[in-house]
Specification:
By secondary structure, this protein is mainly alpha-helical. The protein has a two-stranded antiparallel ribbon with strand order 1-2. The protein has three domains: 42 residues, no CATH class; 83 residues, no CATH class; 31 residues, no CATH class. A hairpin with a 2-residue loop joins β1 and β2. The protein has four helices and two strands; from the N terminus they run ββαααα.
C-alpha cells in the first residue's frame, strides 16, 4: 500500500487513514460493493412473478364476486316475483275473483294488489260468469250489447 503525506506548515506528516489507489478501488472495493447490492435484489424477479400472480388471482376473484352479485340480484328478483304471485292468488281467493280476472290483477306490492283486487271485485263479482244463450236481440231492442254487458257484470237495469 502506498503512503501519503500531508503538509503541516513546513513539516510533512504521514496520513494515518487508509487510502486506496484507483486500481484498488476498481478491482476490490467497487466489485464487492456491487455484489452486496445485487444480493439485496437477488429475489426481485421471483417477487415480481409472485406479485403478478397475486394480481391475476385478485382480478379473478373480483370477477367471480361480480358474477355472484348479479346472480344474487336475479334470484332476489325471482323470489320477489314468486312471492307476489303467491300473494296474488291469495288475494284473488280472498276477494273471490275468477281465474280469468287474475291477468288484470297486477302491482309491485301486496298493497297495490289488494287495491286492484278490491276494484275488480266491485266491477266483476266473483264466481263463474254465466253466459245465457239467447237468440238474436229483438228488432225493437237497440240495447242488445248493453244488456249482454249488464248480464256479464251482474248489474241490473236499475244500476245503469
Amino acid at each position: 500500500m502506498t503512503k501519503y503525506f500531508t503538509k503541516d506548515g513546513d513539516d510533512f506528516k504521514e496520513v494515518e487513514d487508509t487510502l486506496f489507489t484507483q486500481s484498488e478501488i476498481d478491482t476490490n472495493i467497487i466489485p464487492k460493493r456491487l455484489e452486496r447490492e445485487r444480493g439485496k435484489f437477488a429475489d426481485y424477479e421471483t417477487l415480481k412473478e409472485k406479485a403478478a400472480k397475486v394480481d391475476t388471482i385478485k382480478s379473478e376473484l373480483e370477477s367471480k364476486l361480480a358474477e355472484k352479485d348479479v346472480a344474487i340480484g336475479d334470484l332476489t328478483t325471482k323470489v320477489k316475483t314468486a312471492e307476489l304471485g303467491t300473494e296474488k292468488v291469495k288475494i284473488a281467493s280472498k276477494y273471490k275473483l275468477s281465474d280469468d280476472a287474475l291477468e288484470f290483477l297486477d302491482g309491485d306490492s301486496v298493497e297495490a294488489l289488494e287495491a286492484k283486487a278490491e276494484k275488480l271485485s266491485k266491477l266483476a263479482p266473483g264466481g263463474k260468469v254465466v253466459v245465457k244463450k239467447t237468440g238474436k236481440p229483438a228488432e225493437g231492442e237497440a240495447d242488445g250489447n248493453k244488456s249482454i254487458a249488464r248480464n256479464l257484470f251482474g248489474r241490473s237495469n236499475s244500476d245503469a
